[in-house]
Write a structure and sequence with these properties.
Aspartate Aminotransferase, domain 1, alpha/beta, four-stranded mixed beta sheet, single chain, globular, 2 domains, Aspartate Aminotransferase, domain 2
Amino acid sequence: MLPGGSTHVVRTYEPAVYVARAQGARKWLVDGRELVDYTMGHGALLYGHAHPAIVEAVREQVGRGTHYGAAHPLEVEWAELICGLVPSADEVRFTASGTEAVLLALRVARVATGRDIVVKLAGHFHGWSDPVSLDLDEAGRQVAAPGVAAATASATRVVPPEIEAVRRALAGRDAAAVILEASGAHYGGVPLQDGLVASIRRACDDTGTLLVLDEVVTGFRVEPGGMQALLGVTPDLTVLGKVMAGGLPAGAVAGRRDLMELLAGPIAHAGTYNANPLSASAGIASLRMAGDGSAQDAASEYAQSLEAGIRAAMDTAGEPGRVWRLASIVHIALDDPGRQAELSNAMREQGVDLLRTSAFCSTAHGDAELEQTLTGFDQALEALRTVAPA
């Protein structure tokens, strides 16, 4: 009934993983197994599963209505919270997902500049829509995902994450926007060179190109103001999602007032579930907790302990690889990339669910989860050594 057995390419496991319920830092599978969870809703859950404030906000809103087919006060309050936290946000337009928000940001950029080309950094993920479903192959050639029309692909220019490559891509002054993950590809999994985002900002300014930062993952997680606050670089447009909606479906574009006002005309933008009351209620609860930075600090402090523990375990075991951290996100890379999936599966067998080999930490993770994770990591490494070829 479900192609591949799931509704998301990253959720396709062998053997299959189906979750019955989740609470705090843990989730329970349909077969009764309990896992320490580091997928955290693909990074959307800064406060863990079923946080009481978010649950209560949604429960109350369900009784007041799930869809009004009209504007409502919650969307105004939600937007005010975003504008109060995100440096680039003069105004906000909501969508139903991060993918939709990317599409909208690129349309705004094209209308504002009168240009068609979008420059994308190789390896950076911006959802599954056609304009950003392109990358570079091992030979450095631009390739599009299956099903992306040649005409669409020709309007996207993929370049390595290097300032000279970006400058060359912008030299013709035909690019509407540069879009990138300010954290580096895959929420810091492939870090950027120091100062690169600031250099790209200057290159955009020099060529009349708009800078679009994709903060769907990093927004409100790494800092209340996102990566742009951490780096001190203000984009023209920001794409948001995940923590912004407290784990419910939503996305948003935030940016300069003159750009956002294009959505009052001439750009027509619609969406049945834009700023729906349930997502708005969860988002308000989430951002109220995110505003003072204490949640980010707590999750990052736990992540720091997790990073140190994993590094010590790898050193003790003599396992070649690296572990590093971006705020509350921990990344693990074995020197043999072919063993990454094996490590993820071995950790799941030990009762710990990573997102591939990354860990999204939350305010719900504590000492018990840390101990179980590090014990499980030791055992997972032992299991990998047992099955390793001679």
